[in-house]
Every structure is written in structure tokens, then in C-alpha cells.
Amino acid sequence: MLTQIRPDRDDVTLGVSGLLGGLLLWLLGLHTQGGHSLSAPWVTLVPLTVMAAAELLRRTAPRTALTIGTLALVANQFTPGNLATVLMFTDVMYAAVLYGTPAAARRLPVATLLITVASTIGFLAWFREPEALLIGLVIGLVSFIPAITGVSVRTHRAAAEAARLAAAQTARLAEMDRTQAVIAERARMARELHDMVANHLSAVAIHSTAALSIDDPETSRSALKVIRENSVEGLAEMRRLIGLLREGGEDDAPAAAPTLASLDVLVEQTNVNGVSGGLVCVLEDTREATAGALPTPVELAAYRIVQESLTNALKHAAPGPVVARLAQGDGMLTIEVTSVFGSRPGPTAPGSGAGLVGMRERVTLLGGTFDAGAEPVDDGNGNGTKVWRVRAQLPVTEGAVGE
């Protein structure tokens, strides 16, 4: 079954316009040459009509259109000639290069150049007159110039298409980067929100449970006091986070991020919140005073790791000491928090399991190492006591952060 080729609308317009223009020139008696054996004026209309038909195929079948157009141009030379036939052939040659195969686009300019040079030399040798150069010039204008113009337009179109594809690829990559940045920012916000609020809400949950389960006015009053303090501090932390997320606020001053210098306050607050559970928190900072300031991301991550570790101890640790240790050496900041592993009496707060995940993510983003788990310790009595140990190491040099 043959596939029906439908001419493009613009090709139909060119073909019809060329045919009507050629008919007008024929009616006016304007020809390009005379004195041929086929001198009847109407014969000129045959190659004109054939060339107009070739125009209909210039885009859908450029090779066929060029073959038909070449035959029509040659036939036109044996008639009085019509300028419209010649002009339509230049368009057919141009279209054969522009819409044809890449091989045709490479070969046609070379072939037309060789034909132009050979024709010029041949006519010059035949007529032995300088005017023979004009014949070669006409052949070049009819064949070589349209071919080289088609090459130029095709090259520019290919470059434009390549630029469009590159722009689309860049847009896709930018969209992927934007999506990944949004995901990373959401994860960071989730860690910040969890670390800031979990400590206070855990204390609220534990003390509210104690107030409800113990029928003692003094105990209830003490629990309510702790609940109020943690609620106020939790709201303050929430306001700080909202200030960081807001693009523009009334106060242009940025909210201060917590630092390791405020760990004493955090430890004291944990002692107050964990007194009912028999927890005693201690901070051991063995860093030298001359160690220098830490990079802001490292200091914030270290603070959050200690804060989350103390929160987990408040939720799950058995009565006993909770020790937070800080040490710095060999370009690394070491954070270690230990608590007694085991069941605890009294009220507890449920955990979401996101704390360890968040701490590990923080350490990984800064290129450090993280480990957490229960370890046996020798207490000298053979009781098989275990401690829960959280240990993180963070690089403290600026170049290493974020690698």
C-alpha cells in the first residue's frame, strides 16, 4: 500500500505563485532566450508546469523534486525560456539542501560548485570569449548559491535546535536541583523542629503524667511549674524557628543559633526535668580555652546532638548519671553522651525514633562519624550493667565541613 504524500501548504503557495507568474511572463511575451528548434511560445509552458509541480514536493520529497526540477530546467533551455522556471529551480535546489538528508546537504554544494567551475571552463574554451564567464556566473547563481544558502540555513537551524535542547536539559537539571534542595531543606527543618521542641515536650509529658498519677498538691505544683517553664521555652524556640523560615520580618536582626557555651543551661534544665526520674546530668568539657572558635555548622550540630541525647535520656534512661563529654583534638570535635541503659520507674514519654536519624544526618552532612548503642560496663560487682552511649566526631576545620 503506497503512502500518500500530502504537499505542505506553503509549498502549494510557492508552486501556484510560480506557475501564475510564469503564465504572466508568457502572456507578456517575455522570454529568456530565442532561436531554438522548438520555437513555439507555448512549449515554454511545459517545463514551467513541471517545475511548478516539483515545487509541491520540495519539502516532503526533496530528492524527487530536485530530479524533476533539473529535467525541467534542462528542457527549458530548448524553449524560448521562462524566468519563473529558473527562479523556481533555485528554490528547489535550496529546499533539497535544507530538507534533504545530511548526505545530500554535504554533497550538493560540492557538486554544484564543480558543475559551475566545469561549465565556466568549458564555455570559455568553446566560445573563446570573455563573455563566456557570464554563463558560468549564471550557472553558479542558479545552482551553487542556492545550495550554499541552504547549507547556511540548515547549519543555523541545527545550532538553534542544539541550543534549545541544551536549554531544556539545563532546565531539567535545574528543576532536579531545586527538588533536591527542597527535600534537603525539609529534612533540615524537620531536624531543627524535632531537636528544639522534643526536649521541652518530653518534660511536659513526663511531669504532666506525674501530676496526674501522684495525688500530692506539692508534687502537682512542682510539676506544673516545670511544665510552664518548658512550655514557655518551647514557644520561644518555635518563634526562633519561625523567624528563620520567614523571608522578611519586622526585626532585621537574625536569630542567634544556640552554641556550646549554653550547654550548662541545657544540662541544668535537664536536671530539673529529670529529677523525678532520678537522673543526674553532668557536663565534662575538656577542650582547651585556646582551641579557637568552631565553625557555626559544627557548633550547632554539636549542641543539637547533646540536646537530643539528653532528651532521649529523659525519656528512656534508668536512674543514674547522664554524662555529656566534649573533647577536641587532631582537627576533630568529639561529643559523647552516656546514660544508664535499662527500665526506669515512674512516668515516661513515647519516642518517635527520629532522634537518632536526625543526629546521624547532621553528622553525615558535616563529614563526621556517628555511633549509638548499648554497651556493657564493668561496675566491679558483676551485675552486667549497661550504658547507652552516643558518640559523634565532627571535623572542626572550615575546609572539611560539608565535604
Shape: rod-shaped
Mean pLDDT: 80
Largest sheet: 5 strands, mixed
State the distance separating the first and last CA atoms.
64 Å
| Low-pLDDT segments | 248-254, 399-403
Strand order of the largest sheet: 1-2-3-5-4
H and E string? HHHHHHHHEHEEHEE
Q: Using DSSP, what is the number of strands? A: 5
Strand content: 5-15%
* SS element count, helices: 10
Query: Helical residue percent?
Result: 55-70%
From the alpha-carbon coordinates, what is the Rg to the nearest angstrom?
A: 44 Å
Helix-strand makeup class: alpha+beta
What does the model show?
The protein has 403 residues and is of the alpha+beta class. Helix content is 61%, strand content 11%. The chain has helices at residues 9-28, 45-55, 62-76, 83-99, 102-127, 132-213, 217-245, 263-273, 296-316, 354-365, and strands at residues 279-285, 320-329, 332-341, 369-376, 386-395. The protein has a five-stranded mixed beta sheet with strand order 1-2-3-5-4, with helices on one face. A hairpin with a 2-residue loop joins strand 2 and strand 3. The longest helix has 82 residues, at 132-213. The radius of gyration is 44 Å and the shape is rod-shaped.
List the helices and strands and how they pair.
Layout lengths: L8 H20 L16 H11 L6 H15 L6 H17 L2 H26 L4 H82 L3 H29 L17 H11 L5 E7 L10 H21 L3 E10 L2 E10 L12 H12 L3 E8 L9 E10 L8
Parallel strand pairs: 1-2
Antiparallel strand pairs: 2-3, 3-5, 4-5
